[in-house]
Amino acid sequence: MNPRNWTALALVALAVVVIFFALRETHSDPENAPGRSAGKETIKQIPSNPDTVTPR
In which residue ranges is the amino acid composition biased (Polar residues) (predicted)? Predict the structure, then answer.
């Protein structure tokens, strides 16, 4: 392979790595995840002392 082919291959590999990390950061951000904020509001708080909880 001549240097031009190696350069093209390196640019394609670099683009794949950049796109991978860009998408991973977008989808791993908990504030931007769809439905994440709605789920936080519906979760009941767990009391730290189980003796103070009224039995069911």
Answer: 45-56
